[in-house]
């Protein structure tokens, strides 16, 4: 007879240090099982090649996960010059090999063209969809479709080191930026081609890799130690101003009703005392409209057959 797994309500945010070679969903499911969390999601995928910061949301925190999708990201990456691949990274099939003969000064000058607002063509091996199908599915069938360039911004692009045919870069960029495309485009400018050899995500908005924990470390912890690793749901909303409501206003907000407030226009995180009520938006009339609200009491545990 198979054992049964009991899922329970867990609310909070886990900053996971995802290992390379693992999909974001596999990392999410591994962490979810460690917490026995009934509901879980992540805030945007990392490629299997990549390691680093992957914020995971449990329970009520999943309602706010979309807010990190628009946040700036920071990466450390290794570029390999003189070799191009069909995926633009080290997991792909080698397409071309070329000699590498540029100096550090020439590399620095080439990097200058990629700082600030740029137009970038997304790679075929990506999760973007065309007619409902992910581009990477089409790419694996040998089908290439036209991808319109997108406006992205490279806020910081710093050369960490350069030796032979490899360099390490620090990249801080806007949402929608593909570091693989940056590697390929830089290689094209330098005339030798390039691909992304390694990628590590250091930050997502205000969240930092220094505060993250690995799956191995989580596995070795007690249940109480794991719970201590969870951040409150409003860790995802720190870029928004707080708005305080009294008990009556808080109840109206939680029931989906607008509340009159004196606060700045736009989105905000809403509290009653220290309790997070949800995400709201203040209009020009000073009316606070509920956008997402936090649920109430924990739900009963949900059994599931282990597989």
Automatic annotation (TrEMBL):
Active site: 47 (nucleophile)
Record's catalysed reaction(s): uridine(55) in tRNA = pseudouridine(55) in tRNA
Pfam families reported in the protein's UniProt record: TruB-C_2 (PF09157), TruB_C_2 (PF16198), TruB_N (PF01509)
Lineage: Bacteria, Pseudomonadati, Pseudomonadota, Betaproteobacteria, Candidatus Accumulibacter
Enzyme Commission code: 5.4.99.25
Function (record text): Responsible for synthesis of pseudouridine from uracil-55 in the psi GC loop of transfer RNAs.
HAMAP family (alphabetical): TruB_bact (MF_01080)
Enzyme class: isomerase
Top-level taxon of the source organism: Bacteria
The name this protein goes by in its record: tRNA pseudouridine synthase B
GO process annotations (BP): mRNA pseudouridine synthesis; tRNA pseudouridine synthesis
Residue ranges of domain tRNA pseudouridylate synthase B C-terminal in the record: 180-238
Protein family according to the UniProt entry: Belongs to the pseudouridine synthase TruB family. Type 1 subfamily.
Keywords: Isomerase, tRNA processing
Source organism: Candidatus Accumulibacter adjunctus
One annotated GO molecular function: tRNA pseudouridine(55) synthase activity
Segments forming domain Pseudouridine synthase II N-terminal: 32-179
Domain tRNA pseudouridine synthase II TruB subfamily 1 C-terminal residue range list: 241-294
Entries under PANTHER family matching the protein: PSEUDOURIDYLATE SYNTHASE TRUB1, TRNA-PSEUDOURIDINE SYNTHASE
Keyword Protein transport: no
């Amino acid at each position: 007879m198979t054992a049964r797994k009991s899922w329970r309500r867990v609310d909070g945010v886990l900053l996971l240090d995802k290992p390379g070679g693992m999909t974001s969903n596999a990392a999410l499911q591994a962490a979810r099982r460690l917490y026995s969390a009934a509901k879980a999601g992540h805030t945007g995928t990392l490629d299997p090649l990549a390691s680093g910061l992957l914020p995971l949301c449990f329970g009520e925190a999943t309602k706010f996960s979309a807010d990190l999708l628009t946040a700036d990201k920071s990466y450390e990456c290794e570029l390999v010059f003189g070799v191009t691949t069909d995926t633009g990274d080290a997991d792909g099939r080698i397409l071309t090999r070329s000699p590498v003969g540029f100096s550090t000064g020439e590399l620095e000058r080439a990097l200058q063209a990629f700082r600030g607002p740029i137009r970038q063509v997304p790679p075929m091996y990506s999760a973007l969809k065309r007619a409902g199908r992910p581009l990477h599915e089409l790419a694996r069938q040998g089908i290439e479709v036209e991808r319109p360039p997108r406006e992205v911004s490279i806020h910081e692009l710093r050369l960490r080191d350069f030796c032979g045919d490899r360099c390490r870069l620090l990249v801080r960029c806007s949402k929608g930026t593909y570091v693989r495309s940056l590697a390929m485009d830089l290689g094209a400018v330098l005339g030798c081609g390039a691909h992304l050899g390694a990628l590590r995500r250091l930050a997502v908005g205000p969240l930092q890799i220094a505060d993250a924990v690995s799956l191995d470390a989580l596995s070795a912890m007690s249940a109480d130690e794991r719970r201590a690793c969870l951040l409150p749901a409003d860790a995802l909303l720190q870029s928004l101003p707080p708005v305080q409501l009294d008990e009556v206003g808080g109840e109206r907000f939680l029931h989906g009703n607008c509340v009159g407030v004196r606060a700045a226009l736009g989105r905000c995180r809403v509290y009653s005392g220290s309790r997070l009520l949800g995400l709201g938006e203040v209009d020009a009339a000073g009316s606070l409209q509920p956008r997402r609200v936090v649920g109430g009491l924990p739900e009963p545990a949900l059994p599931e057959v282990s597989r």
